[in-house]
Amino acid sequence: MSARRTEPPEPGTCTLVRILGESVRPGETRTLDLQVARLYTRTRVEIPVVVHRAPEDGPVLMVLAGVHGDEVNGIDSTRRLLTDLAERPLERGTLVAIPILNVFGFLAMQRELPDGRDLNRFFPGAPNGSLASRLAHALVTEVLPAVDVVIDLHSGADQRYNHPHVRFTEGDEGSWEIAQVFDPPLVLRAPIREKSIRSHLNHLGKRYILFEGGKARSLDEDAVREAHRGITRVMEHLGLWNGPSDHTRGTSLLTSSKWVRAPMAGLFHPVMENGSKVDKGMVLGLVSDPYGESVRQVRAPFGGHIICVNTSPVVNQGDALFHLGLP
Fold first, then answer.
1. Are residues 13 and 136 in the same domain?
2. In angstroms, what is the C-alpha Rg of the chain?
3. Is 239 left (phi over 0), alpha (psi -120 to 50) or beta?
4. What is the percent of the chain where pLDDT is above 90?
5. Cα–Cα distance measured from residue 55 to residue 178, given in angstroms and rounded to the nearest whole number
């Protein structure tokens, strides 16, 4: 493991923050390299972990992006945050930023690791398991113990465009508080997926929210800006920065979600915009036969908000078209 650092001030009386086996002193900024494996060319794959420590003690916030290698919106939101820190240093606490966790997938611009595994299904991992399991284990053992709050940035999978929203775990009041401070347009109370990073952190009692916005392999300015705004608000709430710098808009809570699926195969024509509030029976879109013989309407089976739209122009019967969040 290597480290790049700025020159630190003289040590104060604050307690040390240890990440990747290294101590980060008050007022210090370091970039530590998490090393998990080598490529078959024998090249080391290093995952930069940027740590900004304020002169004064406070909460430790981690901003995580690139768990899925092709979800670039969160990577750009994290980049903007790190750029901000050059002109707006932390006043208390610590920020841990990992712009790209799944470097392997990022290099190939694919969601999974080279072995086809989804990293977010292998937590807490194991030191001698698959590549996904080893990477999860390294994060769990070498970074997460120092962290109090986690903001995990994601986008929709291939051909699924997510309207900006935050997900948190039902019954986790601490995470619900962070979600409200983040102040996205919508907040979804979502069930836990086993072996996910959210499942692991919930078990540890750490506060965690997951932001969704945009789609894979695409930079969406609205999603990037929404994530950056929310992170800034959370940092101010935790006292890392003075604030607030932005007014509270208010968010709508969604208690569950369901997919509306294609009634037939054909060409897909969305009618309602992503993020729209819809009532039961409203026409969401159309699926048409390529030969002009039939057109089927896709109607909302219940009222709610659209939080994701399939962007594929051609769909098969049963394909997920609209993800509706229920109030």
1. yes
2. 21
3. left
4. 89
5. 24
Number of domains in the chain: 2
Whether 77 and 182 map to the same domain: the answer is yes
The model's pTM is: 0.94
CA–CA distance, 72 with 268 (Å, rounded to integer): 26
- Residue matched to tokens 């808009």: 249
Judge residue 171's burial from the number of C-beta atoms within 10 Å of its C-beta, 0-12 exposed, 13-18 middle, 19 or more buried. Answer: exposed
What's the CATH code of the domain at 292?
2.40.50.100
Residue 25: C-alpha distances to residues 53, 83, 139, 148, 284 (Å): 7, 21, 21, 17, 54
Per-residue pLDDT tens over the stretch 213-223 = 999 999 999 99
Domain identity same for 278 and 245: no
Q: What are the strands, taking DSSP E only, across the chain?
A: 3-5, 17-19, 22-24, 29-38, 44-53, 60-64, 94-98, 149-156, 160-169, 186-190, 207-215, 252-254, 256-261, 266-270, 277-278, 283-288, 295-299, 304-310, 314-315, 320-326
Half-sphere exposure of 190 (CA within 13 A, CB side): 27
Sign of dihedral through CA atoms 131, 132, 133, 136?
positive
**Domain containing 132: what range?**
3-252
Q: pLDDT grade, residue 233 (50/70/90)? A: very high
Residue 110 CA, chain-centre distance (Å), reads: 16
pLDDT tier at 244, thresholds 50, 70, 90:
confident
pLDDT digits (tens, 9 = 90+) for 132-154: 999 999 999 999 999 999 999 99
CA distance 17 to 60: 9
Tokens of 290: 């390529």
Residues with Cβ within 8 Å of 293's Cβ and at least 6 positions away in sequence, in order, are none
CA distance 89 to 279: 46
Name, in order, each residue with C-beta under 8 angstroms of 146's C-beta and a sequence gap of 6 or more: 17, 18, 19, 60, 94, 96
- Partners of 228 in the beta sheet? none
